[in-house]
Design goal:
By secondary structure, the protein is mainly β. The protein has no helices and 30 strands. Helices cover 0% and strands 50% of the residues.
């Protein structure tokens, strides 16, 4: 079987966009972390959290095989593997407990799946001529966004509704389109590659209209999350090769930000009211910390005790944050904590 594409997914108002650089003082803060590890897991990576506090993600077993997992808000955990799976990644969970993700079969093809809350699996492909379908995000009502490659190896975005209807789409003029986030209002954020091999951000409205955007000075733009208000977060790379975080408001205004001391900033999630979470690196990447950016621009830095590599992947409306850390002899465990004041 070929290598499983855990990082295959790359993580658009082209008019005048204003940009402000916010450098509010970062401060270390201790939260009450609930750490967890699925049974038999060697490494644990949470992927999404719903409004109820249920978490999905994936883990590596001792043989380095990938399995999906579900962790209920109460703490119980079970594995997820569709029939015929040779490796599973869970990427989303809706308000009813339906889970979305993708898996590899024994031939090396990748398929999307939905696990119904009752336990049954539905496998699907974005088109009849694809061997690689990657659902990346799911909103609270069960709509799914992702990407796939057609028989010509062209990358397209897709939207899958709860009844199974799949709508492919591309950004006009793009040679590759990837949908990576979907809001509860049906807006989709992602990135596309132009004919010059430059990546830009895009916003697709519920009716299909697509707008392109880039923070000023960007040479590469990769959105990662979108909320119901239409706020998009992600990162971009400037002309010097430095990676910064950004937040794009619904009116098109873009704010660039970095925790003080950061040499790389990676926003990963945004709550309904606009609280952004992610991680950043310091000292040239020798240390990695979590951050929470409040709606007033204040940035709070955090790490579970003993962690030198903290990754953060998402946040829900209750400001429950998910991530992983290496505080246990280099073994990455999942964690969840409440950042509500």
């Amino acid at each position: 079987m070929k290598s499983f594409p855990v990082n295959l997914v790359r993580w658009s108002l082209s008019a005048a966009l204003s940009i402000a650089f916010c450098c509010a003082t970062a401060q270390g803060q201790t939260f009450k972390y609930q750490e967890f590890v699925p049974f038999g897991a060697a490494q644990t990576v949470p992927g999404a959290i719903n409004a109820h506090g249920d978490v999905v993600g994936f883990y590596f077993d001792p043989k380095f095989v990938l399995h999906g997992f579900f962790r209920a808000a109460g703490g119980s955990i079970f594995s997820l593997d569709p029939p015929g799976s040779a490796g599973t990644v869970a990427r989303g969970i809706d308000g009813q407990g339906n889970i979305s993700g993708y898996y590899a079969d024994e031939t090396g093809a990748y398929h999307g799946f939905v696990r119904r809350s009752g336990g049954t699996y539905v496998s699907y492909d974005a088109s009849t001529d694809t061997t690689l379908t990657l659902p990346v995000a799911m909103n609270s009502t069960g709509n799914i966004a992702g990407l796939y490659f057609d028989s010509q190896n062209t990358e397209l975005g897709f939207l899958r509704t709860p009844d199974g209807t799949i709508t492919p789409f591309v950004v006009q003029g793009a040679i590759g389109t990837a949908a990576v986030a979907i809001s509860d209002g049906g807006q989709i954020a992602g990135d596309y590659t132009d004919s010059q091999q430059v990546q830009h951000g895009f916003l697709r409205g519920p009716r299909g209209a697509i707008l392109s955007f880039d923070p000023p000075g960007s040479t590469l733009t990769l959105p990662t999350a979108i909320n119901l208000a239409g706020q998009i977060v992600g990162f971009y790379v400037d002309g010097s090769g430095v990676q910064h975080g950004f937040l794009r408001d619904a009116d098109g205004t873009i704010v660039s930000f970095d925790p003080p001391g950061s040499t790389l900033t990676n926003p990963a999630g945004i709550s309904p009211e606009g609280v952004t979470v992610g991680y950043y690196q310091t000292n040239g990447g020798t240390a990695q910390h979590g951050f929470l950016r409040k709606t007033d621009g204040t940035i709070v830095s955090f790490d579970p005790a003993g962690s030198t590599e903290t990754s953060v992947y998402g946040v829900n409306g209750a400001r429950e944050v998910i991530g992983s850390d290496n505080a246990h002899n280099g073994v990455f465990r999942g964690f969840v904590f409440s950042a509500t004041p």
